[in-house]
Amino acid sequence: MTASHRRQTLQALGAALLMPALGAAGHARAAQADSRVNPVRVASGLEHPWSLAFLPDGSMLVTERQGRLRRVTPDGRVSAPIAGVPAVHASGQGGLLDVALGPGFAQDRSVFLSFAQPTRGGARTAVARGTLSPDGATLRDLTVIFAQKDDPSGGHHFGSRLVFARDGTLFVTLGDRFGHRDRAQDLGSHLGKIVRIRADGSVPPDNPFVGRAGALPEIHSLGHRNVQGAALHPETGALWTHEHGPQGGDELNLEKPGANYGWPVITQGREYVTGFRIGEGSAREGIEPALHQWTPSIAPSGMAFLTSDRYPGWRGSLFVGALKFRLLVRLELDGARVIREERLLAGREQRIRDVRQGPDGLLYLITDASDGELLRLDPRG
Fold it and tell me: Is residue 310's pLDDT more than 50?
């Protein structure tokens, strides 16, 4: 067994052993604010749903990690699997991941998917573009526009969120694949990076590492562990992300071009089994500090800024799903500063995988389970 395989095995064992203890601590701390929202089931029977995107008619595209894309109507009807989806490596955390509509969907019906792409060596995070047929039953002309250079074996830390910037470029978040964390600092590797590409997969010439010897030109920032939440700030247009730490040290970050976010050299997290410190410490000059961090880890996934007034006093808040603590986190912001954290829905015991604001201004959640649900949060009163 190689050193990386031994480390991967120990980390996985530690994660399994620590999860119940950390979860109990998180529930003890959770603020109860469920009296202000009423979770309403829109649809059920989804197998480990991962992401959703709203279509112009109010229906939703929902990915299932096993490799299916579905259309869900506002009244909860779930379609048969949409044809034309790519083959996926549906193992561990891998499979069909994020879905996003192209900026010109109204004209070209373009849909973008991120997924764990099977390879001879293992698997890698990839992004494909297709055209949704007028009846919504088929994804046509599917083309892979990006694939990680690295394709290690294993089923952990694929990322992956897709966010279109205001200029039409596409941010793709990429995990470190768990047992290969040192590559997060290697500009010759896509592991542990956020990349920025055009909608056709080409590289924008203003990317920060274009022309730098030994650096992959798609890279926009480095030093990430496993980013499963990303959203544009509604006022500034800046990309905000969050990522999983190991034993503690989940981070909320303001992503900047060329910035280094530290993993695995600088982190608040510790090794799973031993509890030993990872890297050099929690801060260093030249490493971008987190805006907010969670210790114990909440295992964040999905993220959305609220721009509507549907929930009194919550406009401008940032909402984050939590897999481990099975709740929804509301972060109250003052600019780029988190001034308050509130924990919602803790009593439902559901792993929240994604959070989106719908065209009606309400928040929608999907839950990660073999019988996963699509929920709408209705205001009470």
Answer: yes
Q: Set out the domains of the chain in order of their start, with CATH numbers.
A: 3-379 (2.120.10.30)
User: Residue 358 and residue 363: Cα distance in Å, rounded?
Assistant: 6
Count CB atoms within 10 A of the CB of residue 69.
23
* Model confidence pLDDT, tens digit, residues 58-101: 999 999 999 999 999 999 999 999 999 999 999 999 999 999 99
Long-range CB pairs of 53-59 (<8 Å, 24+ gap) are: 53/99, 53/100, 53/101, 53/111, 53/356, 54/101, 54/356, 54/358, 54/359, 55/101, 55/136, 56/105, 56/106, 58/358, 58/359, 58/360, 59/136
| This model's pTM is above 0.70 | yes
Give, in order, the Cα–Cα distances in Å from 380 to each of 218, 323, 336: 45, 25, 29
Q: Report the SS3 class of residue 177.
A: coil
- Torsion angles phi and psi, residue 14, rounded to 5: -65, -40
CB 300 within 8 A of CB 250: yes
Query: What residues are annotated to the active site?
Result: 157
Angle at 221 between CA 215 and CA 223, to 5 degrees: 95
